[in-house]
Every structure is written in C-alpha cells, then in structure tokens.
Design brief:
Structural class: alpha/beta
Number of helices: 9
Number of strands: 5
CATH topology: Rossmann fold
CATH architecture: 3-Layer(aba) Sandwich
CATH class: Alpha Beta
Shape: globular
Largest sheet: 5 strands, parallel
Bound molecules: adenosine-5'-diphosphate
CATH superfamily: P-loop containing nucleotide triphosphate hydrolases
Distance between the termini: 8 Å
Length: 192
C-alpha cells in the first residue's frame, strides 16, 4: 500500500495535484473538505455540525473529523492505498490516522507539503471563489483566518511526520505539470 499525505495551506493546489496522483498511482483520494461539503449539500447531521466551523474558516472538531475519515477509509478495503488531502490537520488527527493505518498493517509512505506564500494563496482562493460557490473562498477575512489556523494548528503536523523522517517540502509555485513531476519524484524515491 502507498499512503500519501498531500499537505499545504489552503489554496496551495492539493486538490489539483491529488487528482493527478490518483491517476498515476491508482490510489483512493480522500479530501475531508470535499466530504464535509458533500454532507452539507445533503443537509445531513454531520453536514449541519460542520457548517458553522467551515463558514468561519475554523477547524471542525477532531472527533467529528476523525470519525468521518475512519468511515471513509473502511469503505475501501480493496484500496491500493490512499491519498489524504486536507487531513490530518491537527496532531490528534495525525495520531488517529497512524493508529488506523497500523490496525490495517500499513503506514504513511510520505507527507508532501506544497509551499506557497500568503499573498499568492489569497490571490488563488479569490480567483477560485468566483466559480467555486464556496462562501469561505469569497471573504478575505475568512481566507486570512484559514491561513492563520493552518499556521497555528496544522503546520505542527509537518514536524510530527518529520520526526518519522517522512516529511518533504515542495515548491508549489510553477506550472501544474512541473509541480506534479516534483511530487512524483518524491513518491518514487521513498522506498515502500
Ligand atoms: P482548503 O484547504 O482550501 O481550506 P478544504 O476543502 O480542505 O479547503 O477545507 C475547507 C474547510 O473544511 C476547512 O476550513 C475546515 O473548516 C473544514 N475541514 C476540512 N478538513 C478538515 C480537517 N481535517 N479537520 C478539521 N476541519 C476540516
């Protein structure tokens, strides 16, 4: 199994690159942001729980997110591996993910962090906001809050996996194909 974590601030290109990595490595893509948006669009109890947090650019509580992630992983017993996008976003989420994978006799292959500066992030998210219909993409204060939450709560996850020698930084600026090549080079260089 190859289990990848695609990491980086909001708007750093995780979704775009995840789609390509899925094709190349035949992995199951799990985006917790997409899962929450799906639940919200169906107005499920889970969607209702997540809504207020997402609207403010805050994190949904760990117990809610971890439970949802676990359910999704367990729906794919046949998977070759997973690409986690937008998860883990906190240290408890990372610990829960490691435990879940260990139960399945596997682990994280590598974490790849896309590096993009704040002004570029705000610019990209505002562009995306014009077509994404996401309320959290259309308000600069909320975008800046998401970046602050990333720095305070999520960035430590990079160090957590660095302690396991699994974290890699990638320049997230450039052509989509170029960035993809940088990511694939890392996946291919890490022994299984
Ligand atoms: P982006 O990375 O562009 O901010 P996402 O689609 O990954 O967008 O996430 C959107 C929102 O969904 C986050 O701001 C947060 O409220 C919620 N969310 C997504 N993933 C998680 C997670 N792992 N833990 C807590 N909240 C999450």
């Amino acid at each position: 199994m190859i289990n990848l974590i695609l990491f980086g601030p909001p708007g750093s290109g995780k979704g775009t690159q995840a789609a390509r990595l899925v094709e190349k490595y035949r992995l199951v893509h799990i985006s917790t942001g997409d899962l929450f948006r799906y639940e919200m669009s169906n107005d499920t109890p889970l969607g209702q729980q997540a809504k207020a947090y997402m609207a403010k650019g805050e994190l949904v509580p760990d117990e809610v997110t971890i439970g949802m992630l676990r359910n999704k992983v367990e729906k794919h017993p046949e998977a070759n591996g997973f690409i986690f996008d937008g998860f883990p976003r906190t240290i408890p989420q990372a610990q829960a993910l490691d435990k879940l994978l260990e139960e399945k006799g596997t682990d994280i292959h590598c974490l790849m962090a896309l590096q993009v500066d704040d002004d570029e992030i705000v610019h990209r998210i505002k562009l995306r906001g014009a077509t994404s219909g996401r309320p959290d993409d259309n308000d600069e204060t909320i975008i800046r809050n998401r970046i602050a939450v990333y720095k305070n709560e999520t960035a430590p996850v990079y160090d957590y996996y660095a302690e396991q020698s699994k974290s890699h930084s990638i320049n997230g600026i450039g052509e989509i194909d170029e960035i993809f090549d940088r990511l694939a080079a890392i996946v291919d260089s890490v022994p299984a």
